Amino acid sequence: MDLVIENLPFLLKGAYYTLLITVVSMFFGLIIGLIIAIARLKGNRILRGIARAYVSIIRGTPALVQIVIVYYGLVDYGIELGPLTAAYIALSINIGAYVSEAFRGAIQSIPKGQTEAALATGMTERQAMRRIIIPQAIRYAIPPLGNTFVGMLKETSLVSVIAVTELMRSAQLLVAQYYVYMPFYAAIAAMYWIMSTFFTFLLNKIEKRLSVY
Amino acid sequence: MIEIKNLQKNFGQHEILKNISLSIPAHQVVAVIGPSGSGKSTFLRCINGLETITGGTITVDGHVIDANASKKAQQKEIYAIRRKTGMVFQQFNLYPHKTAVQNVMEALLVVKKMPKEKAYSIAANLLEKVGLAAKEDAYPSQLSGGQQQRVAIARALAMEPKLMLFDEPTSALDPELVGEVLKVMKELAEDGMTMIIVTHEMKFARSAADRILFMADGVIVEDAKPAAFFEHPQTARAQKFLQQVTEF
C-alpha cells in the first residue's frame, strides 16, 4: 500500500494518458463513425461497400492486432509513427467502426415521416439529415455511444504493448522495479473502475437532460 | 396551376396509379376520396415528388416533373415545386426536438436563409393564425393531436406556398379534435388557397371543397362538384362507397 501511495503521482500520470487517449480517440472516432454511418445509409454502391468492409474488418479483428499493425506493420512501408500517435490512429479507427453502428441504428430509428416533412418544406436531403435527422439520432445514439466510450477507456490498456505509458504500462513498470504485483495491479484496477463508474454516471446525467422533450 | 398528364405509378409489378390526367386551376379546393388502397395518398405524394413517378408528367405552377427526364432534371423540378407547395401529413411529423415556433421557423432559416428575427415574427404570426399563439414554446409532445396538426399547418404555410397538400390530416386525431383542424383548413380555403385534400371526412369534403375526385383502384372514377357527387354518384363503385361511409 505504501508503495502505491509513494508512486501515486506516476500512476496518476498513467491515468491521465489513459484518459487523454480515450478522449482523443473517441473524438476522432465520432467523426469517423458519423461519416461511415452516413456513407452506409446514403452513399452510392462504392461508398456503401467501402463503409461496410471497414466496419466488418475492424469489428472482426482484435484491437491488439490493429494496434500492432499501425505501429509496427507500417514501418515496413517507411511509416514510422510515435507510440502515442499510433495509439490515437489505431484506436480512432477502431472506435469509429463501433460508433458508426451506433449512429446507423439511431438514424434508422428516426421515422421516415421526419425526412419527408423536411423535404416537403423544400429542404435538400442533406439539410434534412443535418438539421432534422442527426440531432434526433444523436439522442438515440447516446446510450450505445456511452457504452462504447467506457469500453474504449478499458481498451486503451492494450496500447501498453507499443510502449505508451498509460495506466496499464505505468503499473507494469512499477512491478518491474519493485518485484511485487498485486498492489500495483489492484491499484490500477481500482482506478479504471473509478473512471468507468464516473463516466457511466456522467452519461446517465446527460441522457436524462437530453430527454426533456 | 396543376396539370397532370398520363400519370402512372408502379410499386414493383403493382400498378398504384393508372394513367391519371387532370388539371386543377388556382384557388380550387379539391377533396380526394375513395376506399383505402385506391392510391389517393400516393397520388398526392407524387405531386410534390415524395414518390417518384413511373410515367407521365406533373406540372405545378410551370415546373414539370417528367417521368422520362433524367433523375437529376426531375429532382431539380421537384425542389422547385416543393418550395411552392406545403404538405400536411396524417401523423403530423412535427420535429420532436424543436418547439412549436421552431418547427415553423425551420424551413425559413434553412431553405430561405432568413435571419432569425424575421423568421420568428413570421412563425409567431402563423401560430396566432392557427390559434396557438400561447403554445409557441411547447414541444410537440406537450401538445394534443389537434394542436400538433395545427402547428404542422402553420409550418407548411411558412414558406408561403401556392398549393397545399393534405394527406388525411384528421385521420389520426381523436374525434373531438377533428373540428379545430378542419376549421383552420376551411379558413385557408376561404382565403383562396389552392388545396388538395385526401380525406375521409365526407361532411367536410362536401362543405369545403369545390370539387370531388373519387378514386378507386388507381384511377379517378368520378370528378364532380360536391353536391352532384354526393347526391347523384354516377358509378356503381361510388354509390357503394357512399353507402358504406354514410351507413349508421
Automatic annotation (TrEMBL), chain A:
SUPFAM superfamilies: MetI-like (SSF161098)
Subcellular locations according to the entry: Cell membrane
Keyword annotations: Amino-acid transport, Cell membrane, Membrane, Transmembrane, Transmembrane helix, Transport
Domain ABC transmembrane type-1 positions: 15-203
One Pfam family per UniProt: BPD_transp_1
Record-annotated membrane-spanning stretches: 15-41, 53-74, 178-203
Protein species of origin: Aeribacillus composti
PANTHER family from the UniProt entry: L-CYSTINE TRANSPORT SYSTEM PERMEASE PROTEIN TCYL, MEMBRANE COMPONENT OF AMINO ACID ABC TRANSPORTER
Protein name: Amino acid ABC transporter permease
Membrane topology reported for the UniProt record: Multi-pass membrane protein
Family according to the record: Belongs to the binding-protein-dependent transport system permease family.
Automatic annotation (TrEMBL), chain B:
Subcellular location: Cell membrane
Keyword annotations from UniProtKB, A to Z: ATP-binding, Cell membrane, Membrane, Nucleotide-binding, Transport
Gene Ontology cellular component list: plasma membrane
Topology within the bilayer: Peripheral membrane protein
InterPro entries for the chain: AAA+_ATPase, ABC_ATPase_HisP-typ, ABC_transporter-like_ATP-bd, ABC_transporter-like_CS, MetN_ABC_transporter-like, P-loop_NTPase
Spans through the membrane: none
Any one GO molecular function term: ATP hydrolysis activity
The keyword Transferase appears for this protein: no
Name of the protein in question: Polar amino acid ABC transporter ATP-binding protein
Organism: Aeribacillus pallidus
